[in-house]
């Protein structure tokens, strides 16, 4: 069995050689405002991580709020977005083992930091 240190060194080597890649596969843009839901729009960024010649999907829901009065009012919609749990963050987990391939799926809450940026509508 490979040790954690050996695996860490292999990861560093693969990274250095450009053998770990992430690419944007697609984006979904969900008009949540038409459903009378919050936030107004959800952009789902779909990425593909390639490591050890295998692809892993990543999906990141990004909330977008059109709010005339600005950031403070938009925070209430962010809270609704989190509490309603309509959109999931999809992350891979790799398990290195002596045994063969196996797949499972689990759902857990995950602490998330939102870096919120307000921009004026006239630059759009």
From TrEMBL:
The molecule here is called Uncharacterized protein
